[in-house]
Amino acid sequence: MNNPGFVSLMVFLAVSSMVVLAYALIGNRRSRIDARLEDIENWLPGGPRPQLADAEAAATLVSITKATLPKVGTALMPANEEEQTQLQTRLIQAGLYSRQAMPMFLGVKLLLIVGPALAGALLGVLGLYPMQNTFLVGCALGIMGLIGPGFWLDYRKKKRQEQLRRAIPDAMDGIVICLEGGLSLQAAVQRVSSELKTAHPLLAREMNIIEREIQLGQTPGEAFLNMGARTDLEEMRTLASVINQSDRFGASLVRALRVHAETLRLRRHQHAQERAQKAAVKVLFPTILCIFPAMFVVILGPAVYRFMTAFPK
């Protein structure tokens, strides 16, 4: 056991096994991607359509779930109108505009609360696991199901706001160019929304809503203010106030929007710099937890081995 050649052989075998395992995992992932691409190609016109029964069964299950969860969620609607308004506002700010969004959200929340406890009790009754342990684990998962959907809404809202903040300066530049070309603000919004469908689809969707609200009789300032309420973005509220003040005082809208676009672009640049500064701190923890232990093993391993051989038990 104290032979250095034996230790080197064991280290070589361990490292080789890890490399082979990593290669197998990566190769399996690539094969799954290839299989998925083949399935998509088979669904194209002229190709075979495999597993129609499974697809129909999955579609049926999804339709039953969509029909059942809103009914369950309707029974859980808050009785207070103010609480309903707050929840509806959170759903809208997270990008869930459907009328069934609130009942569906409440139904899923109830399922996440009650489902784990019922599953744990069922496992305990069947005797697969101890009743006390399964019930406690189910209750813990139910508490997580009570809190988790709220965190999910906040996370979705944050990601949505980041995408919009990244796209708004580009849209402002396009609107300014269209206004300088002689288009009205409504026509400029329509043109920019059609141009942004590929690069920024989320902002293009919101601008389509603005265009429809203007067509229904609202002023551009009111439409942009509604977008600020839907997205909870201070940039959109500021833009709405700029448009309203330009209409009220007769100032040049193009000049005001150009200055506002430059301000938004500067904010985006500052936000990118802030995230870059945070990256150096965030990468410190993976470095300490993952890289340094391996370095310590490589550097101190031979010294520890020599110490163990020099001072045997």
Summed up:
The chain is an all-alpha fold. The chain is built from eleven helices and no strands. Helix 2 (52-75) packs across helix 4 and helix 7 packs across helix 8 (220-231).
Main features:
84% helix, 0% strand, 11 helices, 313 residues, mainly alpha, flat
Q: How does this structure look, described?
A:
The chain is an all-alpha fold. The chain has a domain at 167-282. It is 84% helix and 0% strand. The chain has eleven helices and no strands. Helix 5 runs antiparallel to helix 10 and helix 8 (220-231) runs antiparallel to helix 9 (234-249). The longest helix has 50 residues, at 131-180. It is flat.
Mass-distribution shape? flat
Number of helices: 11
Report the span from N to C terminus.
Answer: 13 Å
Overall radius of gyration: 29 Å
Helix and strand succession? HHHHHHHHHHH
- Helix/strand/pairing category: mainly alpha
Q: Please outline the major beta sheet.
A: none
Fraction of helical residues? over 70%
Residues in β-strands, percent: under 5%
Poorly predicted residue ranges: 48-53
User: Strand tally, please?
Assistant: 0
Mean pLDDT: 78
